[in-house]
Write a structure and sequence with these properties.
Shape: globular
Largest sheet: 3 strands, antiparallel
Number of helices: 6
Strand order of the largest sheet: 1-3-2
Radius of gyration: 17 Å
Helix content: 25-40%
Order of helices and strands: EHEEHHHEEHHE
Number of strands: 6
């Protein structure tokens, strides 16, 4: 087995896009995705990996914001901004993807959200790796249909 990139954030974009199911997430090493012998060197994984994207050479610009409503700040983290952006996207017929806890709170998975009731489940940070399932592919389909997509929860 070999690694795809040294800059892996375990976002699993490569796993979603691999046409040969040749990519595995290591169960023993948290931050490791490896390629097995099914790989045909098509480079789809490398071309879709955010870790392989060239870094901007200029100094980054940082912006800080928070919502004014204390109610919305308490429902979210990081100043409540994600919730406000998500509500805007949903109000304008967009789709929001984010992480949710399982019913027993033992695992986290990503889900597709199309209404404000579902939005409450994805608010607040979950500081663990999320099972992405096929959400990257669903988001790609939504984008190809012309939908606005907000995808949160990966580096």
């Amino acid at each position: 087995m070999r690694k795809i990139t040294e800059n892996c954030s375990v976002c699993t974009a490569c796993v979603s896009k691999c046409p040969k199911s040749a990519i595995n997430i290591s169960k023993k090493v948290y931050n490791e995705i490896k390629v097995n012998n099914k790989c045909v060197d098509c480079n789809i994984c490398k071309n879709n990996c955010p870790g392989n994207k060239t870094k901007e050479k200029n100094n980054p610009v940082f912006k800080v914001a928070r919502v004014k409503s204390s109610t919305n700040i308490n429902k979210s983290t990081s100043g409540g901004l994600f919730g406000e952006i998500a509500r805007y996207v949903l109000k304008h017929s967009g789709i929001v993807y984010g992480a949710v806890f399982s019913d027993d709170f033992h695992s986290v998975k990503h889900t597709r959200c199309t209404n404000s009731d579902d939005l409450n489940k994805i608010l607040k940070s979950k500081y663990v790796r999320s099972n992405m399932n096929n959400n990257f592919l669903l988001a790609e389909k939504d984008l190809k249909k012309g939908k606005t997509v907000l995808f949160s929860g990966t580096p």
